[in-house]
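Dear colleagues,

As part of the handover before I leave the project, I'm documenting each prediction I ran so the next person doesn't have to rerun anything. This entry is a single chain, and its sequence is reproduced below.
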Amino acid sequence: MKNIGYLGFYFYEIVVPQAKETALSMAADGMKAEKIAHYLKVSVAMVQNWIDESMSVVQ
């Protein structure tokens, strides 16, 4: 595994999972991916990927 340093670790191990959990909750409440991405300051593609992943686990 590539050494990503403390900030990289913090981002990928703490910030991203929290944002993903929040995004999935917002989506479950009916919010569109574009608006979720705007509020969380991430890309729409990232939010849509999280939603798609969670749907594939459910099916």
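The mean pLDDT is 87. The radius of gyration is 13 Å.

All the best with the project,
I.
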